[in-house]
Amino acid sequence: MTAPLLGRDYRLLWAAAVSSRFGDALRTPALALLAATLTRDPRAVAAVTVAGQLPPLLLGLLGGAYADRWDRRRTMAAVDGLRAGVVAALAALVVTGRAGVATLAVAAFLLAALGTVFDAASFAVLPSVVPSAALPTANGRLQAGTAVAGGFLGAPLAGLLFAISAALPFTLDALTFAAAALLALALRPGPRAAGRRGTPERGSVWREAWAGVRWLRRDPVLWRVTVATTGSNLAISGLMAVLVLYALAVLRVPPAAYGLFAAGAVVGGLAGALGAGRLAARFGTLPALRGVLLAQTVALAGFAAARHPLAGGVALACFAAGTTVWNSLWSAYGQRHVPPDLLGRVGAAQRVVGLASAPVGAALAGIAGEAYGVAPVGWAAAGVFALVTTVAWRTLRGTGSLAERRTEPVAHP
Fold it and tell me: What is the DSSP letter of 356?
């Protein structure tokens, strides 16, 4: 996954991202399991999950502003060093029996809040690590690595480690953060962009943060891609919210085989991530994005129509492949086109706007599933994707690759 042509610094960045994702995949289910051992109140258990989901929406723009203010490589290292300390402290509290539900919620919030800065910095630093033409491939391989670390390794291992010792997943998570911090420190420093040495906006972090939103809103193509992502996430979050019930009740997946069914989506996502660069090189980024939406709409329709585990699993895997291709090309498009001194803020704005519909989709799917059963949720998700695809085919017009849209050299941060 780390081809030599992408270089030493890319391999370090890739390893840091994969290490962090592996730790996340250990910690997230372990937090839920630990909360369930402390209380049987569904509201308290849900509060821990919600605490980890709020920061990207509430603080994502600030994370992007700080990623543009500070040296991005050192920021990544410092953030993961802090996260290692937070998780290590949590592991110590678990060992001594002092970790309550409130402690878990605070830890989840802190880790997610720090994660907004790390995500913005890592997104913005990638164009200084690899050539512009290699960005789709580089993003795809990052997606592939994190999918393997999270879906194939971390998530299945979390339950086993928790059964051995409740503190073990958190201890290992702290070690992965520490390793990621050291890897980020090993990145070679790059030239600083002029806009980050000091700007008239400096002094108001919120003003800096909103500069990224304004830039995104003024760029017609990137804004349309972001809006399409928002619509897509409405459907994806709704489907994911009831997926386990859908698989058991509609597709008749045996409970013992649900893990295998879910793993099929990870395999599909991995295949899509590895093929993203080839699609961009052959068809151009905008045509590839339009084609991905069309393929995902067909896959979701097939999923909604399926009534057998195999057919449903194949359709879900194809849909997941499209999701990772979309994410890889969407990221590469922004990294190629956005001015280097704004990359952290615009990337954060993309994520915040793109994720804004996720809680709405999950809530609507829960309400619809309770009222009408989970089967209609599949068709509703396919309908949303069909609408997004129809709009995208009218608004995301373009026949060339990224290089054809902006051919002048891009200064590296």
Answer: T
Tell me, what's the pLDDT at 39? 85
Give the pLDDT of residue 5: 65
CA distances from 153 to 3, 22, 214, 301, 410 (A): 22, 7, 39, 30, 37
- Arithmetic mean of pLDDT, 41-46: 78
Go through the chain and tell me how many residues it has. Answer: 413
How far is the C-alpha of 242 from the C-alpha of 369, rounded, in Å? 8
Confidence (pLDDT) at 186:
93
Residue type for 98, please? R
Q: Which of 329, 84, 63, 89 is nearest to 183 (CA)?
A: 84
Q: Whole-angstrom Cα distance, residue 73 to residue 266?
A: 29
CA distance 277 to 318: 17
Q: What is the pLDDT of residues 349-359, one digit of tens each?
A: 999 999 889 88
**Does residue 198 carry a pLDDT above 60?**
no
Q: What is the pLDDT of residue 85?
A: 97
Rg (alpha carbons) of the chain, rounded to whole number? 21
b/e code 253-267 from CB counts within 10 Å (16+ = b): beeeebeebbbbbbb
73 compared with 204, residue with greater pLDDT? 73
Which of 325, 329, 318, 227 has the alpha carbon at shortest distance from 286?
Answer: 329
Interacting residues of 254 by C-beta distance below 8 A, sequence separation 6+ = 309
